[in-house]
Amino acid sequence: MEAAADRINLLGLDRQALEAFFVQLGEKPFRARQLMKWIYHQGVADFDAMTDLGKGLREKLKQLAEVRMPEVLTEQLSEDGTRKWLLRMDAANNIETVLIPDDERGTLCISSQVGCAMDCSFCATGKQGFNRNLTAAEIIGQVWMANHSLGAKPGSERAITNIVFMGMGEPLANYKHVVTAIRVLLDDFGYGLSKRRVTVSTSGLVPNMYKLAEDCDVALAVSLHAPDDKLRDVLVPINKVHPIAELMQACRDYVESKDHRHIEVTFEYVMLEGVNDSLEHAQRLAEAVRDVPCKINLIPFNSFQGTQYTRSPQVAIDAFAKLLWQRDIVTITRRTRGDDIDAACGQLAGKVKDRIRRAERRGDSLEVQP
Ligand code: SAH
Ligand code: SF4
Q1: For the chain, how long is the longest CA-to-CA vector?
Q2: Which of 265-269, 284-288, 336-340 comes out lowest in average pLDDT?
Q3: If DSSP codes are grouped into helix, strand and coil, which group holds residue 134?
Q4: Tens digits of per-residue pLDDT, 254-285?
Q5: Are 361 and 318 in contact (CB under 8 A)?
Q6: Which atom of ligand 1 is nearest to the CA of 116?
Q7: For the ranges 112-126, 173-187, 313-327, 348-362, which has the lowest average pLDDT?
Q8: Per-residue DSSP letter, 297
Q9: How far apart, in whole angstroms, are the C-alpha atoms of residue 304 and residue 306?
């Protein structure tokens, strides 16, 4: 499909904005629902195929609008079934999107920014620095692209059942575009995902956690990584602005703002050998999260070039988890997925040359024509 700078990419409009768009064209607002069904339920991007729209309207749409997914540079498949796409956002910026298939789930891990400004010391994306926010169209475009690439057929079982904002970037630092994208994910005429199946992960931008509680109904994950401010200041520098006590209060308030029961926050905790992985850390962690309905996800550290950290040994991770269980905290150790293709948590950096070179060496990359 030909991209034109002056055509509006409809993947970036939620239902309300799409209705306004049609009204501007002198059409009825219900056209938005018709169009969304084509785009998100049928995976159709070609206006000519949207037979219930009428020829005149289709012609108008072709002039003014487009449904454009990002350009796929490479697609890699890991030994464990994890899939990673390297996507070109513009001449200078690439991002990565990862699909993690499980027994009955397919979790798509999407990016919200090119790079990240939060500068967490153990994160490859953070080390790369910040380039720019993604637009809502670029965020939803990742989901559209993945469905398209997986050949998701209308009415077939969907390969993508869950979405997590755990790719590159801090989603709450790109608030407006992320919220628009969430609306499309949750809308019945969009992807129709339930609020439990969309998770926003944040390093702790407290003011926007409050906004999110008001604007959307999604699951929240918080990157905690340390039980006290002294250590968290080093690992997650935003802690100097919003320290742990303030963060915990925001988590409690988030849970309380939701009227449905059984909602909890997921605390992510990366396991760094000799840094935050002792039994004393576990003990203090249990105390720090005591008043928040939560579960804890331990993430074995994923290494990348130039990092000073190493992954905690399995025995240390197991002992850490055991202590938390003894304090009645549900604790899951995240399985490391896709690290043979650098698709594991914190390894995404979007560097095209490295990725292509490495993939070619292994011979497992398929170049995909967009
Ligand atoms: N920026 C958001 C979401 C993206 S990162 C956030 O920080 O929450 C998704 C998760 O992977 C976060 O918990 C992040 O701290 C963690 N992570 C980052 N680098 C990692 C690494 N090298 N190994 C393991 N987990 C990492
Ligand atoms: Fe950004 Fe999250 Fe990486 Fe921190 S862990 S630098 S917030 S992407």
Answers
A1: 69
A2: 336-340
A3: coil
A4: 999 987 667 899 999 999 999 999 999 999 99
A5: no
A6: 1
A7: 348-362
A8: E
A9: 6
Q: Is 139 in the pocket of ligand 2 (CB under 6 A)?
A: no
Active site residue 96: yes
Cβ of 123 closer than 6 Å to ligand 2, yes or no, is yes
Q: Which ligand has its closest atom nearest to the C-alpha of 123?
A: 1
> Whole-structure pTM over 0.85, yes or no?
yes
- Residue 126's closest CA among 70, 217, 203, 52? 203
HSE (side-chain half, CA atoms, 13 Å) at 163? 29
User: Which pLDDT tens digit goes with each residue over 132-141?
Assistant: 999 999 999 9
Residues recorded for the chain:
370
* Residue 235 identity (one-letter amino acid): L
DSSP, res 112: S
Nearest atom, ligand 2, residue 127 CA: 6
Does any ligand 2 atom lie closer than 6 A to the CB of residue 118?
yes
Q: Among all ligands shown, which has an atom nearest to the Cα of 237? A: 2
Which whole number is the average pLDDT over 287-304?
Answer: 96
Is-catalytic flag, 120?
no
How many Cα atoms are found within 13 Å in the side-chain-facing hemisphere of 7?
16
Q: Nearest residue CA, atom 6 of ligand 2?
A: 126
Nearest ligand 2 atom to the CA of 169 is 8
Which ligand approaches the C-alpha of residue 301 most closely? 1
- Three-state secondary-structure class, residue 95: strand
The residue from 96, 138, 170, 268 that is catalytic is 96
